[in-house]
Amino acid sequence: MAIMKNYDVIVIGGGPMGLATAAELSKTKKTSLLLEQYEFINQKGSSAGLSRQFREQYAQDYMAKLVVESIPYWDQLQKTTKDLLVNKVGSLWFGDPNISSQEGGIKDAMKVMDQLKIQYTPLDSKQIEEQYPFKNIPATFNGFFQKDGGIIDLEATQQALYNICDLAPNVVLRAQAEVINIQSLTSGKIIVSIEGEDFMTEKLVLSPGAYINKMLNFFELKVDIDIWEMSSAYYKKTQDIELPTWFVFQDPMNTSLFYGFPEVDWAHPGYIRVAPDIPDRIIKDPSERTNVPSKKSLRYNEKWVKDHMVGLEPKSEFAATCLITLSTNKRLLLLDTLPDTVSNNKNIIVYTGGWAAKFVPLIGKILSDLALTGATSYDISEFKIDYLSSTTNK
């Protein structure tokens, strides 16, 4: 009989958060195992897509503080790679100041930035059109530019984290390693099984993104989430325009909200990415994903580009979908231990949900600290998880 391998910490889910956690663990003397059901840096989960927005503005002060606290960790990670991980081209928000969305709202974000002394430049509709390649902006719209926002190269970020883990003698990376069972024993041991192998630990981190309920089901638990399948596309430049990352707030009944990115050399050079901030469909399990961009969403997108952007051909190209996992109780992130109905619950840490790419290296630090010490110096009180029983119809 093969001897069961023992690790100080096992991490399940090898996306950005799992990689960041393992990278933090690599700095310790503890051994860790990172299990990914697909290949690393894949397009099958919540980390699909090549770019994400980095921004400090939030309608909630605790979220804005968390972004600011993440910056030193981004700076540390940047030192490990020649690839630019966060291109700080700035962040532009504009639109109806009375409209809010999953992203927050202009008025509330400005209040929080004032409170935290985050610098920004207020703009009216005329100034937005004069300074940026937008047109036909309603006179009632206003907004702001925040200079420290930017665009995250998500693939390069994951590669940098992967390289740290791959070089670390105390981290084992296993791809194509689908977890088929987890047992948390009263002895304090936790057994994680993949096909043909079992591993033992006393500390477990679950960071499987949209696949969270597949893992929680081993504990007869689930979390109430909506998984948005969303479309985006690229639009060919017809002029030499420059953009920050941007988000427009308008009446959700009026073809909803849109966001976009500047041109980057690592994702379709010569093109600009624009996307509607609406779900094509809301699903409960990643297996329901279609991977087919919504024609309706892309029509909205093309109309926005045609009506309100300068220097772009309004024809969708390189269209794709991504998944975003959102809590139905409006919590912006979900980060907690398991409930006390589970043996060793304080030693099993769960992260899932939210628009969280901007926090990647910091969440890795938080998850690592929780696994090793049971505590973190960062405020995660707003991210508690309301677990449900997976054996009922709740």
Task: Give a brief description.
The protein is an alpha+beta fold and 394 residues long. It has helices at 16-25, 61-78, 106-116, 125-131, 154-167, 212-216, 295-308, 360-373; strands spanning 5-6, 9-12, 32-35, 51-54, 86-87, 91-95, 100-101, 104-105, 121-124, 142-146, 150-153, 171-174, 179-184, 190-194, 197-201, 204-206, 221-223, 225-236, 245-249, 258-260, 271-276, 281-283, 317-327, 334-337, 348-352, 387-389.
What features would you describe in this structure?
The protein has 394 residues and is an alpha+beta fold. It has helices spanning 16-25, 61-78, 106-116, 125-131, 154-167, 212-216, 295-308, 360-373, and strands at 5-6, 9-12, 32-35, 51-54, 86-87, 91-95, 100-101, 104-105, 121-124, 142-146, 150-153, 171-174, 179-184, 190-194, 197-201, 204-206, 221-223, 225-236, 245-249, 258-260, 271-276, 281-283, 317-327, 334-337, 348-352, 387-389. The strands form six sheets. Strands 6, 9, 10, 18, 19, 20, 21, 22 and 23 form a nine-stranded mixed sheet that branches. Strands 12-3-2-16-25-24 form a six-stranded mixed sheet. A hairpin with a 2-residue loop joins strand 14 and strand 15. The mean pLDDT is 94.
Helix/strand structural class = alpha+beta
- Shape by Cα distribution: elongated
State the helicity in percent bands. Answer: 10-25%
Strand count: 26
Please outline the major beta sheet: 9 strands, mixed
